[in-house]
């Protein structure tokens, strides 16, 4: 891991190259983490990967955390690894929840919800109830390993990765409604749907 | 016969046909569906479809107190359950900054390595079965059973043992365990030698594995592939060596690597790993320190049963731990270990309550599966089946 001064150094350099990109840095439990503005995510990840002296070329894991009720609510975590120096750094892209409270009704200019059901094209940035979804640039061009993991993040949190080659649900069925790993999505009480039976015998 | 429509060729062998394989197919080692575009017998494109055994474990974990999460996460990758436990318990221990006693570290190392051998035996048996070597399955499962006997002896369960606890392990190893383990450690290298004698010069096995499913080391790294697959391509990357966790820094073992990165190398690397794991188990058993097997922090660890009838304080701690569970201060951690399939990472977000706010597993099978297309495209269907076996995905871990 880069130690605390090393992390500040990285943050300072990012600040120089991409003003406004680094929002915060933290060092807890011996792990370095860097919070960034999602608008600069590709610049920062690319810099950490390619800049001489950095070389965080391996994306171990990409996952999302929901910090409800904090704002910004979501963070996409990129666990980067430098395999030569055996150092990990966590980059957190903080994302605001753009849907109105509850996310149920009255989203800004809601599109036809059925447009998102088709799995063919890239889905529009709207949720099942018309609420807008948070967006961030896809890092598949930098780290091809992110392809499945970004799809998983979209599947469970409804975070849209712009530029992803095939952003569809990966573990849940294509016709599933909702973003179940969000903290305001309840556990249990969900009917078991057998769509085939419903369609043919329901 | 009518003339061929413009743009269509008469040559029917070049027609691309889309074939669905699975989700229920013995060669997919689980509930995996493959949509393959075939041109004759050659795979031109491949799309794995997953999610058939998604059970929402990560979501369910958010509704359980920390110590109740352990049996849940064991059931993700159901062949390497000790690794799931270690990833989760280790992550929580790092969050609450709880140091585990040396004996617990050694015991965990022993069980992790036994589990690695167990996992590789399941892989070897089933993959050799795909290649027509039926006897391998019986031999491998015979030895696997001896490992399960050891698990049962120590933990009372053959699979999904819930043996690791936050702070150490639930119980010390029983009398007679050491002798039985030593017997196993003595036999295992001989058995591995027998397996190699059965397969290494088997013409069918060699011609089906050599030179098939090759993916370059650079491409594997881009795709985030770790574990034996990456090592078979010549990259000596092993988290047991790279990071300092459990008793691995004190162990003397080698990282087997391949040269070409074909299916044969993948087989060789895993078989060699079984021998190395046996060596680790033996060393850990020799160096097993005396002392407590679980930490003595009563805020997180259950008091010994014998104290409950004599100490009011122990009773209160026991009650609090069993009913509410312990609280973990706000924080987040990513802790990764080397599972039989690669980097198994556990991310835990704590919000200060007795339940985790998010548990996420970076499952190596899930990430490694992305390399399957590269391994199979422009090869024969038969080679695709071999590659899938050598990829060794556990669908419970992929879908979680």
Describe this structure in words.
The complex is a heterodimer of chains A (202) and B (400). Chain A is α/β, with parallel strands linked by helices and 202 residues long. Chain A has a single domain, classed as 2-Layer Sandwich (Beta Polymerase, domain 2), CATH 3.30.460.80. Helices cover 21% and strands 23% of the residues of chain A. Chain A has a five-stranded mixed sheet, with helices on one face. About 12% of the residues of chain A have low confidence. By secondary structure, chain B is an alpha+beta fold. Helices cover 47% and strands 14% of the residues of chain B. Chain B contains 16 helices and ten strands. Chain B has a three-stranded antiparallel sheet with strand order 1-4-5. A three-stranded antiparallel sheet of chain B has the order 8-9-10. The longest helix of chain B is centred in the N-terminal third of the chain and has 29 residues.
Q: What does the main sheet of chain A amount to? A: 5 strands, mixed
Low-confidence stretches of chain B: none
Q: Which structural class do the helices and strands of chain B define?
A: alpha+beta
Tally of contiguous helical segments of chain B: 16
Q: Count of DSSP helices of chain A?
A: 4
The largest sheet of chain B is:
3 strands, antiparallel
**What order do the strands of the largest sheet of chain B run in, or round the barrel if closed?**
1-4-5
């Amino acid at each position: 891991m880069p130690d605390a001064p090393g992390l500040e150094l990285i943050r300072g350099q990012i600040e120089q190259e991409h003003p406004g990109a680094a929002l915060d840095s933290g060092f807890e439990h011996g792990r370095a983490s860097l919070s960034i503005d999602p608008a600069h995510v590709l610049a920062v990840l690319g810099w950490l990967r390619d800049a001489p002296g950095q070389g965080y070329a391996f994306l171990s894991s990409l996952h999302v955390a929901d910090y409800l009720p904090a704002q910004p609510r979501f963070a996409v975590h990129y666990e980067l690894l430098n395999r030569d120096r055996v150092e990990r750094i966590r980059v957190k892209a903080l994302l605001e929840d753009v849907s109105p409270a509850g996310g149920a009704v009255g989203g800004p200019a809601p599109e036809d919800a059925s447009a998102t059901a088709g799995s063919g094209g890239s889905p529009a940035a709207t949720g099942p109830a018309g609420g807008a979804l948070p967006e961030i640039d896809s890092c598949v061009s930098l780290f091809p390993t992110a392809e499945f993991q970004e799809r998983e993040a979209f599947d469970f949190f409804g975070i849209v990765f712009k530029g992803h080659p095939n952003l569809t649900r990966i573990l849940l069925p294509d016709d599933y409604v909702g973003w179940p790993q969000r903290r305001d999505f309840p556990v249990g009480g969900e009917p078991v749907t057998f769509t085939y039976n419903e369609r043919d015998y329901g | 016969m009518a003339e061929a429509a413009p743009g269509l060729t008469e040559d029917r062998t070049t027609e691309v046909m889309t074939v669905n394989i699975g989700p229920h197919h013995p060669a997919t080692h689980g509930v995996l569906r493959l949509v393959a575009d075939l041109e004759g017998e050659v795979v031109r494109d491949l799309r794995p479809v997953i999610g058939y055994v998604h059970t929402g474990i990560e979501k369910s974990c958010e509704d359980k107190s920390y110590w109740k999460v352990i049996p849940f996460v064991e059931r993700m990758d159901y062949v390497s359950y000790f690794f799931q436990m270690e990833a989760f318990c280790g992550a929580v221990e790092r969050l609450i900054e709880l140091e585990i006693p040396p004996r617990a570290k050694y015991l965990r190392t022993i069980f992790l390595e036994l589990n690695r051998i167990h996992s590789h035996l399941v892989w070897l048996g089933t993959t050799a079965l795909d290649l027509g070597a039926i006897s391998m399955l019986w031999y491998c499962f015979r030895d696997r059973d001896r490992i399960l006997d050891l698990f049962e002896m120590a933990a009372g369960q053959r699979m999904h043992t819930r043996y690791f606890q936050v702070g150490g392990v639930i119980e010390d190893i029983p009398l007679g365990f050491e002798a039985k383990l030593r017997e196993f450690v003595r036999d295992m290298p001989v058995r591995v030698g027998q397996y190699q004698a059965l397969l290494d010069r088997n013409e069918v096995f060699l011609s089906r594995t050599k030179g098939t499913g090759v993916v370059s080391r650079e491409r594997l790294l881009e795709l985030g592939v770790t574990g034996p697959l990456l090592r078979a391509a010549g990259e000596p990357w092993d988290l047991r060596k790279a990071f300092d966790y459990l008793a691995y820094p004190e162990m003397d073992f080698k990282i087997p690597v391949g040269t070409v990165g074909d299916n044969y190398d993948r087989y060789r690397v895993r078989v060699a790993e079984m021998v190395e794991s046996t060596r680790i188990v033996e060393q850990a058993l020799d160096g097993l320190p005396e002392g407590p097997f679980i930490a003595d922090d009563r805020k997180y660890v259950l008091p010994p049963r014998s104290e409950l009838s004599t100490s009011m304080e122990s009773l209160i701690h026991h009650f609090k731990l069993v009913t509410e569970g312990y609280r973990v201060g706000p924080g987040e951690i990513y802790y990764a270990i080397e599972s039989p399939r690669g980097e198994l990472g556990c991310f835990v977000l704590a919000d200060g309550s007795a339940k985790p706010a998010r548990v996420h597993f970076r499952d190596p099978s899930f990430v490694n599966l992305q390399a399957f297309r590269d391994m199979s495209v422009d090869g024969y269907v038969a080679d695709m089946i071999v590659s899938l076996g050598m990829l060794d995905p556990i669908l419970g871990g992929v879908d979680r």
